[in-house]
Amino acid sequence: MVTGLGCITPIGLTVDEFWRNLVAGVSGVDRIRSFDTSGLGCHIAAEVKGFDPLHYMDARTARRCARFSQFAIAAACQAVEDSGLDVSRCDPYAVGVVMNTGGGGVPDIAEGERTYLEKGPGRVSAFLVPMLAPNMPSCQIAMRYGIKGPVVTSVAACAAGAYAFVEAKWIIDRGEADVIIVGGSEASLHPLTIAAFDNMRALSRRNHDPQGACRPFDRDRDGFVFGEGAVALVVERLEHALARGARIYAELAGGALTCDAYHITAPEPSGEVAARAMTGALRSAGVQPDEVDYVVAHGTGTPLNDVTETMAIKKALGEHAYRAAISSPKSMVGHLLGGAGALSALTAVLAIYQGIIPPTINLENPDPACDLDYVPGSARRAEVRTAMVNAFGFGGQNASVVFRRYDGAAGGP
């Protein structure tokens, strides 16, 4: 059961702010301000603005944490506070953390090398390796709360944030923990990563119109927009949540993984393998395809992804694909890479709890090959009992997760 929510995003540093802006269709994309983009083909991204790590940690901890770890700690602090859980009174071996990422401390690697080359080996930080290691957000959260149960990080490219929920459910179902702080974090914005993705022709070059740049399912889409941020949710065993009278936002019902085994960057073109992740997630959740009210799409705004995902949804849901609502938060927050699936999970949970489906903005000229209901332009009030989250990553990583409304005595909207 999901009992606590937290986030640091390009459109909000709290869950309330994020949700208000997501529902309103506010874009967090703008010209990059954290570094000089001269010489780069892409000058835009969805940066986190106004974040102060000292609101969540002391200066010493902040100095020893890479930005993606700072984001993760902040989101986890929000989620734990929102849950009302006093972790210090829990069995420390019955609490775990699954905080995934796609790239870890990529900017720290690049800046560390620059320091080495310009100033010599003696000036390289002794904390560089633990700063850039992908497992550090999970471990830093564990140290903050004294968590001694399963603490893991899986790096699964852009599917990592959704995969975190699959793994968290496995841990709880196996009886290895009662509570998991689960999510994803990414802060890989750097000239090096922008250059690499741009040279791949993966990024939008709509520099003249930053807020209109990310256009999932639109005929005129030209690539994704880089984003950064973190999301953390507290997930508990039902009996544990009921025993303490927790507010329950939704049930984490199931999830599944597949791999295209096709190409290092391109999706398998038929969508068959991605569809298998969706059908596997539905099966593990005990949900029929026609029970899915809302799909939080991966929806990157790249030419290949959006068509392939549309085909995959049709294969997984059959004729019901034309009746389900589908939207892409990336149209507003950009692509958080390893944090993207976690942000989509937060979107699904809030859609269930609030009865509102956020829009896909910038969908002005639908691609004829993308012919489903992508909730274009403005949010929609609707009862959402079951929501499915999709996340796909380089190397063919596919993850789908299912959340369901909880109607028991201790929760529900």
Which features characterize this protein?
single chain; 413 residues; alpha/beta; Peroxisomal Thiolase, Chain A, domain 1; five-stranded mixed β-sheet; 33% helix; globular
List the helices and strands and how they pair.
Elements: E1 2-8, H1 15-24, E2 30-31, E3 44-45, H2 59-63, H3 67-83, E4 95-100, H4 106-119, H5 128-132, H6 136-145, E5 151-152, H7 160-173, E6 179-186, H8 191-199, E7 229-236, H9 238-243, E8 251-259, H10 272-285, E9 294-296, H11 303-317, E10 325-327, H12 330-333, H13 340-354, E11 356-357, E12 380-381, E13 386-393, E14 397-404
Parallel strand pairs: 4-5, 4-6, 9-10, 9-13
Antiparallel strand pairs: 1-7, 2-3, 6-7, 8-14, 11-12, 13-14
Helix pairs in contact: 3-6, 7-13, 10-11
Unreliably modeled segments: 409-413
Let me know the average pLDDT.
96
The class by helix and strand makeup works out as alpha/beta
Radius of gyration: 20 Å
What is the makeup of the main sheet? 5 strands, mixed
Would you give the CATH topology?
Answer: Peroxisomal Thiolase, Chain A, domain 1
CATH class group = Alpha Beta
* Counted beta strands: 14
Strand proportion, as a percent range, falls in: 15-25%
Q: How large is the count of helical segments?
A: 13
Give the full name of the CATH homologous superfamily: Thiolase/Chalcone synthase
First CA to last CA: what distance? 14 Å
CATH architecture call? 3-Layer(aba) Sandwich
Principal-axis shape: globular
In which order are the strands of the major sheet placed? 1-7-6-4-5
